[in-house]
Amino acid sequence: MSAEPLYRRIAAELRGQIDSGELQPGRQLPAELELGDQFNASRHTIRDAVKALISLGLVEVRPGQGTFVTRRIDPLVTTLSADPASGFGGGEGATYLSEVSAQHRAPAMSAPRVEIQVATGAVADRLRLAEDAQVVSRHQQRFIDGQSWSLQTSFYPMDFVLKGARRLIEPSEIAEGTVAYLKDTLGLKQVGYRDWITFRSPDTNEVVFFALPDDGRVPVYEFFRTAFDQNGQPMRVTVSVFPADRNQFIVDVGAVPAPRLGPDA
Fold first, then answer.
1. Which class for 172: exposed (0-12), middle (13-18), buried (19 or more C-beta within 10 A)?
2. pTM for the model
């Protein structure tokens, strides 16, 4: 039986140091030459060992800086099956804040960035608008425990603003929530929503915001949530982006007890 390759033995040794805490999260690995002397190995062998650790997500390369032990992230579990008639659910608005707080974490959101755009692609299709129609977008960055966690942009037909829902174009929070606001202002009642979930590599902006590896090995979930009014018409499309390294999701169906989450689970 052939002996285990040296690079694997080195990777196992370094992994043991990471698991034991000898190499703390965020700490830089010794340089290749130093590791080569430590393990009496060639530079090529050391590189193979480091590549093995990278593939396991234990270390990451920061261009121009070196190789660092990956910081471990405690994932947030989001329940997607909240009552749609309530106007919230699955990480939106007030539910996002309450779900995060219930898991003894600290949520935060940026002030909305509001823009008037031309509807294109998936947004135009899901809102059943012509591709040259105008929409209002409300974009927010969301954080947990001070770390970037998700991005969320909601799109509304510009027609809503023209009919009187002018707070949609104000760059400030709508305290009662946009669902309640649209009901009170335009008589539109959200009766349900459809989630369309995709999985892809992060784009350049997402790599920077979430501090992800730029090789695409950490993908993102992209949720397209289309909300419908009492007439069966789409009234809002919310696009949310969640990195896979810090988010998990639960879907409840039927009469099931609430999941046990957080440090007291």
1. exposed
2. 0.75
